[in-house]
Write a structure and sequence with these properties.
disordered N terminus; 8 helices; 55% strand
């Protein structure tokens, strides 16, 4: 595997900037710390301190040191319950809300126990988020570990599918609220500008995740980039933890298998280490264009390391390093298989980041983050077997960035100000030639002028940059919360643009009825996707698509309006309702070239999306909990399009043509039920309904026999859509030797329990044809080694 190392000159330059600034990355986590004392004020060493939320499932435990001090790092912003226990004392319980990255100091005082009997802690964190103006959903470590297993390249996106308004597409791609591929991942504060589904890059390893939060409504001003949703990911850390290790072996249907190794722990109470590596392989890597999986093997290797250093109570640093690689075959149609097509793709990436947090005082904290990421992708066909087109591609992306922010608590105000900037380097080398007679013999197809001995070629390299600044203030006046933010951005790559983006949100808590009302307005500026951006913006693309308005693919501007309600129904049940509308200029989308997984960014002149979301959360009661959700949406685009490489798609170039978006699914619903016992036994059962996305179908093709009858049965020719589907998944597990230092975890799962044949899309001009996964059995065994 090839690794791109950061240059010494770049590192020294960035380090100089790093040491000269104070301020931060995008993050939604903070620190909770304090001391445990007895009624006289004397410290209680070795007290057991727990922090958690029973609704989200987030839970962490620490043991106080000799001075009675405890600390929890990387705690998600939310309400939580903090409990301290020690032998001979009654438990001390506090419910608090972490609202910013300024450390929250909570001292806990224990009272003497009146008996020697064990005490059961019954207080729970409140169900309602009384001060939240955003629409967001937490995914904690327990939920990650107990989710129905699937292939690693789609594991994280499968978790996100449980959020209302998230519609799955092929190969782990996601539509969120009617937007195409616009999820912004932020890993330990580092924004990733690439598409993180398995076909574009090596997907994030869910085993490395401590917690995740997906924000779909009222994005704070600190967030930029892809704006339909922001997924903040906090990785595991070894700081303030005993040494632990685990080895997981997993496998399942389609000859799938792999292994994951983790080691973590604390050195001298100031240094934490977490290291993880994974390898996996499967015979069904992509969602193929045929029911049978033809020429479709693939796999990945990953290495991730996180180092934490806390030299004092006022300073902490973390260093992340990862290197990953993916190799997979391009899935064939039956005709391509018969012709002997053997295309394959390779992806390589490496990233490094260094962050510093400094506590100036109890109300002010500064953060700085610098990062670098490089990725390389290649589509290979050395024997020129591609049909009806030969395609070759070699792309490279490099990003270096620096973020700085400062947070301050003052009375009713929580301020945060920051500046962010990054350099972006792109390189593309693309070749295409017609090989099929149906193309070569068609003079109306512009690609016919490029036979194998005279291919179309494109090669370009560009450097650009983006800088931004933001300010935001959360104001709390009793039951009223106001979030006021403004973001300024300047972007220069192919297009050159500047934008001001106000973000305003309000929430009001009605205590008597247990109701939280919220509303927000966001102005969004979204830069174009970087995958094959140079070719999609070039005049050379017009040689393949006559009439295509060429020029730089422009950024997208959105106006997003939202109202919502959160209602406590019982002490165990909470209801969330959200209504949103967004209108966009230069509505961002992408177009996939045949079955290759190679996509080209484009924009649709205008877009309009409106939707409704509802979710019912049931807090675990005697081990049983779950959720039920529904979403309705309508996405409409208006031509013409700019960019992409839509060969043979002339209608999409006609101005003022309204059409349902590729991601226009009107109805989706889902549920999940989890049962967990203290003995270590647990089970999860989930279901999902999708009403189907638009499809380019011709009823005559079915009667003529040109479509596989099994696929034709999944097409609604009257509606011009994929037929609705309902899928069920289950998983169960048990932890053996739970109380020992070497427990063993067992997990078994079945995805698509009823073996339902379904389509993600069919002959879509933007996405092609892809068949969903049939019934899949999975299993995992994990050997743990836990320090005391």
């Amino acid at each position: 595997m090839r690794i791109s190392w950061i240059s010494i000159r770049t590192f020294v330059f960035a380090l100089g900037l790093f040491m000269g600034l104070s301020g931060a990355a995008w993050s939604a986590v903070g620190t909770v710390r304090g001391a445990v004392t007895d009624p006289t004020g004397a410290v209680v060493p070795h007290a057991l301190v727990r922090l958690g939320s029973q609704l989200s499932g987030y839970s962490v435990t620490a043991v106080a040191d000799e001075q009675g001090r405890y600390v929890f790092n990387s705690v998600p912003f939310a309400q939580f319950t903090l409990t301290a226990e020690a032998q001979g004392f009654q438990p001390s319980i506090r419910t608090e809300h972490l609202k910013s990255s300024v450390p929250l100091t909570l001292n806990l005082q224990l009272t003497l126990s009146q008996s020697q009997e064990s005490v059961t802690v019954t207080e729970r964190a409140p169900l309602l988020e009384t001060a939240s103006t955003t629409t967001h959903h937490d995914i904690e470590e327990d939920e990650i570990e107990r989710s129905p297993s699937t292939q690693p390249q789609v594991a994280l996106s499968s978790l996100l599918e449980s959020v209302p308004g998230v519609i799955p597409e092929e190969n782990g791609r996601l539509h969120v609220r009617g937007s195409e591929g616009q999820v912004q991942y932020v890993v330990d504060g580092v924004p990733i500008f690439e598409n993180m589904s398995g076909v574009f890059s090596t997907a994030l390893d869910e085993d490395d995740l401590h917690s995740s939060d997906i924000v779909t409504g009222n994005l704070p001003a600190e967030f930029a980039g892809r704006t339909s949703a922001v997924v903040t990911v906090d990785t595991k850390s070894g700081l303030n933890a005993p040494w632990n290790g685990s080895l997981s072996l997993f496998g399942g249907s389609f000859d799938s298998g792999g292994a994951n190794l983790e080691v973590s722990g604390n050195l001298h109470k100031k240094v934490g280490i977490f290291l993880s590596t994974q390898i996996n392989r499967t015979r069904r890597y992509l969602d193929p264009p045929e029911i049978e999986s033809l020429h479709n093997a693939g796999g990945a290797a990953q290495l991730f390391t996180r180092l934490d250093f806390a030299p004092s109570e006022h300073d902490s640093l973390h260093l992340n390093f990862s290197t990953n690689g993916t190799d997979y075959q391009v899935a064939n149609t039956q005709d391509q298989q018969d012709a002997g097509q053997t295309q394959r793709q390779e992806r390589r990436d490496d990233s490094e980041s260094l962050g510093w947090t400094h506590l100036f005082n109890n109300t002010t904290v500064g953060e700085v983050l610098m990062y670098r990421r490089a990725s390389i992708g290649r589509l290979l066909d050395p024997n020129l077997t591609g049909t009806p087109y030969f395609v070759g591609l070699h792309d490279r992306t490099e990003t270096e960035g620096l973020h700085a922010s400062i947070s301050h608590e003052w009375g009713r105000h929580s301020f945060k100000f920051g500046a962010q900037g990054h350099r972006l380097g792109l390189g593309e080398n693309f070749a295409l030639a017609a090989t099929g007679d149906e193309v070569l013999d068609d003079p109306t197809n512009p690609a016919s002028q490029f036979p194998i001995d005279n291919p179309f070629r494109f090669r370009d390299k560009r450097n650009g940059w983006e800088v931004g600044g933001f300010g935001q203030d959360r104001i709390r006046i009793r039951h009223l919360t106001l979030d006021l933010g403004l973001r300024l951005d300047k972007y220069s790559l192919l297009a050159k643009n500047a934008a001001a983006s106000p973000r305003v949100g309000v929430a009001y808590y009605m205590e008597k009825t247990g109701t939280v009302l919220r509303a927000s307005y966001n102005r969004m500026f979204q830069t174009p996707p970087i995958e094959n951006l140079l070719l999609a913006s070039s005049p050379q693309a017009a040689a393949l698509v006559p009439g295509l308005p060429y020029g730089p693919v422009p950024p997208e501007w959105q106006n997003v309006y939202e109202i919502g309600l959160q209602q406590q129904i019982t002490k165990h049940i909470r209801l969330d309702l959200t209504r949103y509308a967004k209108n966009a200029r230069n509505f961002s989308d992408d177009e996939q070239f045949l079955e290759t997984g190679v996509v080209f960014p484009l924009t649709i002149a205008r877009g309009d999306v409106r939707g409704l979301e509802a979710r019912l959360d049931v807090r675990a009661y005697h081990g049983l909990g779950g959720h039920l959700s529904y979403a309705n949406s309508k996405a409409v685009g208006t031509t013409p399009i700019t960019g992409g490489l839509p060969i043979g798609s002339g209608n999409q170039l006609t101005p003022n043509l309204k059409f349902p978006g590729d991601q226009d699914e009107r109805n989706e619903g889902q549920f999940g039920v989890t049962y967990a016992r203290k003995s270590g036994l647990w089970a999860t059962f989930t279901g999902r309904f999708d009403s189907g996305v638009p499809s380019e179908v011709d009823p005559g093709d079915a009667s003529s026999g040109e479509i596989d009858p099994r696929i034709a049965a999944e097409l609604d020719f009257n509606r011009g859509r994929i037929k609705p589907r309902t899928l069920f998944n289950m998983a169960a597990g048990y932890e053996l030797l739970k109380e020992s230092s070497h427990p063993v975890s067992l997990q078994f799962g079945v995805n698509n329990l009823t073996d339902r044949l379904y389509l993600f899309n069919y002959l879509s001009i933007f996405s092609g044809t892809h068949i969903g996964r049939l019934r899949e059995f999975t299993g995992r065994i994990t050997f743990h080694l836990r320090g005391r």
